Amino acid sequence: MQGKKPLLWIKRIAVYLIGLYLMAMGVVFSAKSGLGVSPVGSLANVLYNIGLDSGAPSFVTLGNCTTAVYCLYILAELLILRRDFRLSMLLQLPASLLFGQLVNLAGMMLAFLPAPGAYAARMGCLLCSIPLVAAGVMLYLTPDILPTPGEGMSLAIAKRTGLSVGSAKTIFDCSMVVVSAAVSLIYFRRLVGIREGTVICALLVGFVMKQLQKPFLKPLLRFVGRESKVDRALAAAGGYLTDSSGRPKVIVTIGREFGSGGREIGELLAKKLGIAFYDRRIDELASERSGLPMGKVEELESRMERAVVRDFMNAAYDMTNGALSPDEELFVAQAAVIREIAASGESCVILGRCADYVLYDDPNCFRIFIHARPDARIKRVMAMYGVDAEEARRETENTDRARASRYKRFTGREYGRQEYYHLGVDSGMLGTEESVAVITEALKRWCEVRGTHPLSFGE
Question: What is the DSSP code (8-state) at residue 324?
């Protein structure tokens, strides 16, 4: 193991430097567009444009202006945190110097490109910067080596105000846009270096980074020998897969398509077997554990936001020193609660909440997925909620898409894929009671094969 550590650090440093350089390339591309850069770099870009206009010495480069502004951020952190400012935070200084020089290097490397004239060409230049910055942020954050002051300021504001890191980042970004605009208006009497591109970068960088993370983040983490922030939080949250009571038990987890009747089947199954049924109770326990208000938990569990909106809301957390977003906090808390239930020796039925994944290695877990044809599910949703066919279809598709997206995000698996379950049940064909009968019979046979028979099965 000792021989692997130097190699891991070489990998981490390489990924970190590549990430910073890609970010620097993105900054240069967006600066060349003349349409503005991201909020964090907007003040440096305005100061650089002032330097160009005033005929400042050659050392007034975009990279050096970026370093200078980052140093101001570190000073602001000191003023905000005061006694809470730690000496380790001064490590942001070498990161600032390094990033500034990489911006200068990228500027020299791209100096052969002519400044775009037409608006379409300028917008194209700006759009080229977005995937570069997004990929750079993802790579630079993965090794978790040295933070840059942009993240440091968000964390400092969060610590001083008690706000979430995402809210603090929003405040910081908006403040920098206002300050940059004011400096530009004072000097130029118009907006220079901060324009519509600043808003476009703020909206799209996080979204593009989320798309890149889906296929690349886990391989990157393995490459540098690190766990994801959710995995780290899960490990810290505790909970055990072993049953200290020594009593035989069965935990049935139910995944389901929307409108398939999975909740009704789960409740009836638990009643027939004489065991507990966990649905909303898990959310209540997770709310207590995470500190998230129950109203917020219910909002997150509804999962009816569009993916783009959710990605934009979560982007702030992914770009600020590994902080967990609210839905990540909820998942970690739910997983810990599910593990504690599994460790209690209690037989039960658990509905949804990625329980099949959380308890995948528990030999006492019997995993089921309930599905049905779309037309059968739409009819069921119409009857349950009193909506027309079009509304029921839209509700069904949106909820299925949201559940699949959440499951993929936290497990890396495709939702409903049969290989992850012991049994798949077509409730549209069988109906609720017959589905329960089929599950009961399969579960009874599963217990017999394992040599345990902890359930009554209505006998």
Answer: P
Helix (H) or strand (E) holding 213: helix 196-223
**Average model confidence (pLDDT) for the chain?**
85
pLDDT in tens, 354-411: 999 999 988 889 999 999 999 999 999 999 999 999 999 999 998 998 888 888 888 8
**177 shares its domain with 310:** no
Q: Which one of 206, 226, 246 terminates a domain?
A: 226
Entry pTM: 0.67
Give the total residue count for the chain: 459
pLDDT above 70 covers what percent of the chain? 87
Distance CA 206, CA 316 (A): 7
Helix extents (H) in 319-426:
326-343, 355-358, 374-385, 389-411
Q: What is the pLDDT of residues 312-347, one digit of tens each?
A: 445 444 544 456 677 788 888 899 999 989 888 889
- Whether residue 457 is contained in a domain is answered as no
Task: DSSP for 87-135, please give it.
Answer: GGGGGHHHHHHHHHHHHHHHHHHTTTSPPP-SHHHHHHHHHHHHHHHHH
Per-residue pLDDT reduced to its tens digit, 30-59: 999 999 998 889 999 999 999 999 988 888
How far is Cα 328 from Cα 317, in angstroms, rounded to an integer?
10
Q: Using the 3D structure, point to which of 226, 257, 286 is the last residue of a domain.
A: 226
- C-alpha to C-alpha distance for 171 and 184, rounded to whole angstroms: 20
Is 253 in the same domain as 141? no
**Tokens 């605009």, residue located:** 181
Angstrom distance (rounded) from CA 421 to CA 432 = 19
Q: Contact, 445 vs 438, CB < 8 A?
A: no
